[in-house]
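Q: What would this complex look like in 3D?
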Amino acid sequence: MTEPLLCDLSVPGRIGMRYPEPDVPLAELPVLLRQDLPLPELSEVDVVRHFTHLSKLNYNIDQGMYPLGSCTMKYNPKINEDTARLPGFALSHPLQPIETIQGNLLLMYELQKWLGEIGGFAGMTLQPAAGAQGELTGVLIIRAYFKSRGETKRTKILIPDSAHGTNPATSAMSGMQVVELKSDERGNVNLEALKSHCDETLAGLMLTNPNTLGLFDENVIEVCRLVHEAGGLVYGDGANMNALLGIVRPGDLGIDVMHYNLHKTFSTPHGGGGPGSGPVGVAAHLVDFLPYPVVDIIEEGDEDMPPLYGFVQPKQSIGRVKSFHGQFGMMVRAYTYIRMLGPEGLRRVAEHAVLNANYLMHLLKDYYHLAYDRPCMHEFVVEGQWDDAPEIHALDISKRMMDYNLHPPTNYFPLIVHEALMIEPTETESKQTLDKFVEVMREIAREAHETPEVLKSAPHITPVGRLDEVKAAKELVLCCGVESIAD
Amino acid sequence: MFIPHTQEDREEMLRTIGISNLDDLFQDVPAPHRFPDLNLPPALTEMEVLQEMQSIAVSNESMEDMICFLGAGAYHHYVPSVVDAIIRRGEFLTAYTPYQPELSQGTLQAIFDYQSLITALTDMDVSNASHYDGSTAVAEAVAMAHANFRGKRNRVVVSPALHPHYRQNLRTYNQGSEIEIVGDEDLSSLSKGPEALEDLIDLNTALVIVQYPDFFGRVYDYTRLADKVHAAGALLAVSVNPIALGLFTPPGKFGADIVTGEGQPLGIPLSFGGPYLGILATRMEYVRKMAGRLVGETVDNRGQRAYVLTLTAREQHIRREKATSNICTNQGLMALAATVYMSTLGKHGLRQVSELCYHKAHYAARSIGSLPGFSLWSDQPFFNEFVVKCPGPVDEINMYLLSEGILGGYNLGNDYPELANHMLIAVTEMNSRDDIDMLADVLAEVSND
Amino acid sequence: MNIPADLKFTTNDEWVRVEGTTGTIGISDFAQDQLSDIVFVEIVVAEGETHAKGDSCATLESVKAAADVYLPVGGKVLAVNDALPDKPELVNSDPYGEAWMVKIEITDPSELGGLLDAAGYQKHVEEKE
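A: Here is my prediction, written as structure tokens for the whole assembly.
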């Protein structure tokens, strides 16, 4: 049963919202007056029912396990939603005088400090809107650093072949040259390949650690040393920080600059595709290049007076990456989360995220071929194919999982594993949930061999079946027809 | 709390894996750096954390405490209850990006609704699923235009009346590129309209960017500018306040090729500057140069109408270093808020809210403009914001207003030295006639001092 | 896998048919199969322009992938296949015929020497698979 579009629900004359009559004398309307406003006409009831019907077509964490690798789909605490909506936060304007927003600034100051402590960084910016924008910020910082030293030839960024697509896209956007690095047979950065690129054009290496195979790079210290020795910097993609909270600080390993994803590691909701938040931490030698503004204490306090917080501009700042101060609402949620967990709680998060992944890997490895058979961190990759079930692909397994009310893992990524299924359970799933997951995955493996057609035609119980994506891309229907939406 | 494991579960799981304790999971992590002591405050319970957050929040002055006349890119509008009721639903709030369409039709169809409403509002052919905010949408418009001309046109002409943050952001984004940004350095032309940009448009120009209403609240007909831009073979981008489009001619009508905007006024709280919503719409011929996610209609294998992310081959996860943008996560939930807002207000409500803003702002401008020592800076038509020349420094006036419970306008001297002592005042439907009269009365006291 | 004997190939899966000094260029059957259903073709060079070997001459998109087509040899563009963008599916159905992309006046025939013949390309494809 499909839900009609808003424009099809519209009935001329319906009103969803009334406003008070103007209490001021009316001004003459402008010359550039709009002739028609082709928006739908709906009652409030129509609107609520439409979106409630739509919501029921979505899978979500509140409903069940969401094992998308590299996405860290952990449970999002409800208290976060309440704290972010406190009027003092939600109803404050970004351009108010700083004396009237000391609460916001204190929160940002503390969050900067805590994220710096968790990752081992000397400075932080909370401004980037998402991980990808954090990457852009980080790579622009690297670029600015070399520019300030007159080393303008350093434009080469090395990116392992297991990296997210955002890494090369970011580097190209920043005017850098991308060179792909092969992984070695254990899934680490290939040291020989790395050495061959360590020259006077090297700007840096973008390292995701643990990488997208869920493996902690066994040579990480050596990798950072080689890059530094060649005069380059190491960028850390913090997408997988959930495995490292309280376990190791990337800054201590030699990472010079790294972004976090508050919407992965620090439990802020994904919202069906954002908003995210991508704070960036930097080592001491890069603090001056952070985007502005950064929150700092601008007048020290004493026994009687709290300090005065304000915005400062780093000396050689790369500039502003976003209007105002970043995704503040996400910062409130992350602050709430860190405050509720404390240092021991954060470590427990990483421990259980890694425990859950290893437990699943152990129980699945006799049924699915492991891409790399070594202990994993918070996620692992299996191959969604068998030699003795040749017609079955990772996609079929994914679609079949839906029939068991499970969301599939990330599939076809990382690119270096054929038919990849990348599984990240997160710490918020119980042993019972994981056992159920294993049971389903084993059953699907059996079906793949005995009744492959069941997988090929899956999913069967979802609101819609497999979609014609070629038609979508060739016949481009991207909005409701203007004729039908207008009256 | 958020980790469900019992001691028993843990032991059984460790046994299954074949290790004796949790620490053994981290053998690959270099031992000298393993398990650092983090200097963070100790854990709080939910009751305690709520108390702490409340005490931080009340140390701010918010719109609950003040009458707001501050805008400058973020506006205090009424948000109907229905908006938050919908976006708080876990089905939307805790879903991931809709990569698996069979399990994400809710999010996908809501984005399709959003695309439909944005194209209708802007009078364009196609809208993407959103960017981070109004500033990054402008930066993406530049990348889009640059890609459209395959890097062969490298000049971007920017109006000095584009939001200062957006202009700063454009420079940040383009510091590693060959793009030259001109037009906003010469501030002597501030009082002139868009014709001041015309001489800068040449055959190397990829894009011309203006704001509508502009940063100073002024509304111009950009038809002539659009003609000049197109005559040079370039594209025109217009950054909009979507609420103004409830009343004013949409940019599609005067020839805009790309419409960007800050979607915050569409049902998104001020929230100290974010999360907001970056709008980007364009003409069909440029759809493949547009970054960001896009939802298209198709059918499923049971013959039902259904929705799916489409034209994904433009995006970073496929095109990697050849993608025009690295955008991945966008502002999904904020786009949903705007969709619920626009559908609730609809055709009549949006017009009504635009008119309320317009009439109240004009009443305020008349009241303040006639005060001794104050005058209106421009006689150009405006929407809900206007510039007032003040008899003294804006920050001092604002301190005085604050003591009376009024959050005054934006100090333009921060960004435009020649506009020292000029204040940008915003008025919305949230301001009553009494509020406006009070503002005028307090300002009158300032001018008498 | 169809690999016509009269064509020369690149390791990036472009083919060129040489007739006198004219080279006709497209992508191989193997390449179209790897990309799956092509939904979009854009030719990014124009008649009369001169381009070097290795310059991008077209962009292809399928639902799951994107690919750039590079010139196997340099020269002056004599013609582009204007019909192709309207019928991208031709790349799948007739990669060596109707789905030709660009015709070029070859500047330096010696550039052809570095290309693979049908047998060499066959071997290349087998290694990739």
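A: To summarize the key features: The two ends of chain C are 12 Å apart (CA to CA). Chain C has three helices and nine strands.
Q: Very helpful, thank you.
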